C-alpha cells in the first residue's frame, strides 16, 4: 500500500455520509490512501473504516439488511432512551459483533486519523486521536456523531462532547495546519449549499436543552455563519486549484433517510462519481 502525502477531509451529514462511503470504497479499491485523515460526525465513521481498510463496512452500517441491524428507535424507545438512534448498537454491537471493526489494522496503520468533536463546556472543536484503546476509539466516533437534540451527550475523560460538525463542519483550516501540500475534501451536499439561520423557535429549544452549556449554545447559534463562511473559502481554494473537492452532483438524500433503495443509489453515486473523477484527482495529487 502506497500512502500519498496529503490530507483527506470528510464532512458529516448523518446518512448523507453514504455518498462519502461510496467515494472511499472506490479509493480503497484503487489502493489510494492518504497520510492524514480528518473525519467529522458521520465522516468520522467513514474515516476510521478507511484507515482500517474495510471497504463496504460503513455502507453496511448505514444500510442495515435485517431487523437486528436497524439503528433507528421508534417513538416509545426515543422517549425512553432520549435518543433517535441506538448508539449502543452502532458503536458497540456493530464493531464487536455484527460488523466487526478491524482494530488491529487501524492501530497499526501509518495514517494519522483525527476525529472532530465539539466540547460542550468550551463550545470549541477538538481534534482527537486514539492509538490503542478499542472502546475509546468507538467512543470518539460516537461523540463526533452525536447530533444535538436527537442523541445524548457523550462523556470522554469526564468531559461532555457532541457532534463535531457544530464547531467545525469542514475542518479545512485544521487540514492546512498539517502543512501537507495537497488537500482532498469530500462533501455531502451540492455546490452552492448554504445553511439557514436558526429560527427563534429552534433557538429557544436549544437554549432549554443545553442551558448548562452557554458556550455550546453560542456555537450552535453561530453554526450557519461559520459553515457558510467555510463554504465560501472552499470555493475560493477550489477555483485556485489549491484543493480537490468531491461532492454530490445529484440531490442529496435527507439527513435521516431510511429508504434502502434511496441510500443505495446515493452510495452508488459517490462510487461512480469518484470513478469518473479519479484521473483528475491523481493529476491534482501528482502535479
Automatic annotation (TrEMBL):
Active-site residues per Swiss-Prot or TrEMBL entry: 41 (nucleophile), 163 (proton acceptor)
Positions occupied by motif DGA/G: 163-165
Hydrolase keyword on record: yes
Start and end residues of each PNPLA domain: 8-176
Keywords, in A-Z order: Hydrolase, Lipid degradation, Lipid metabolism
Span of the annotated motif GXSXG: 39-43
GO molecular function, one term: hydrolase activity
Pfam families with a match to the protein in the record: DUF6363, Patatin
InterPro entries noted in UniProt: Acyl_Trfase/lysoPLipase, DUF6363, NTE, PNPLA_dom, YjjU-like
Statement: the UniProt record of this protein carries the keyword Lipid metabolism: yes
Name used for this protein in its record: Phospholipase, patatin family
UniProt source species: [Ruminococcus] torques ATCC 27756
Amino acid at each position: 500500500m502506497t500512502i500519498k502525502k496529503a490530507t483527506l477531509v470528510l464532512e458529516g451529514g448523518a446518512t448523507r455520509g453514504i455518498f462519502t462511503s461510496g467515494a472511499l470504497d472506490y479509493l480503497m479499491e484503487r489502493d489510494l490512501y492518504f497520510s492524514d485523515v480528518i473525519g467529522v460526525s458521520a465522516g468520522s465513521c467513514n474515516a476510521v473504516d478507511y484507515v482500517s481498510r474495510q471497504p463496504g463496512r460503513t455502507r453496511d452500517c448505514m444500510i442495515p439488511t435485517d431487523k437486528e441491524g436497524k439503528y433507528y428507535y421508534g417513538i416509545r424507545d426515543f422517549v425512553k432512551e432520549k435518543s433517535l438512534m441506538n448508539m449502543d448498537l452502532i458503536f458497540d454491537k456493530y464493531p464487536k459483533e455484527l460488523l466487526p471493526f478491524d482494530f488491529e489494522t487501524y492501530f497499526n496503520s501509518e495514517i494519522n486519523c483525527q476525529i472532530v468533536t465539539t466540547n460542550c463546556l468550551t463550545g470549541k472543536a477538538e481534534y482527537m486521536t486514539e492509538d490503542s484503546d478499542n472502546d475509546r476509539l468507538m467512543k470518539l466516533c460516537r461523540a463526533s456523531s452525536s447530533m444535538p437534540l436527537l442523541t445524548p451527550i457523550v462523556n470522554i475523560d469526564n468531559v461532555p462532547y457532541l457532534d463535531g460538525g457544530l464547531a467545525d463542519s469542514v475542518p479545512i483550516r485544521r487540514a492546512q495546519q498539517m502543512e501537507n501540500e495537497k488537500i482532498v475534501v469530500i462533501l455531502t451536499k451540492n455546490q452552492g449549499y448554504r445553511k439557514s439561520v436558526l429560527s427563534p423557535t429552534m433557538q429557544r429549544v436549544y437554549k432549554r436543552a443545553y442551558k448548562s452549556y452557554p458556550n455550546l449554545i453560542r456555537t450552535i447559534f453561530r453554526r450557519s455563519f461559520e459553515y457558510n463562511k467555510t463554504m465560501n473559502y472552499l470555493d475560493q481554494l477550489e477555483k485556485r486549484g489549491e484543493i480537490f473537492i468531491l461532492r454530490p452532483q445529484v440531490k442529496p438524500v435527507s439527513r435521516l433517510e431510511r429508504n434502502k433503495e434511496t441510500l443505495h443509489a446515493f452510495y452508488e453515486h459517490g462510487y461512480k462519481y469518484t470513478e469518473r473523477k479519479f484521473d483528475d484527482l491523481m493529476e491534482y495529487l501528482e502535479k
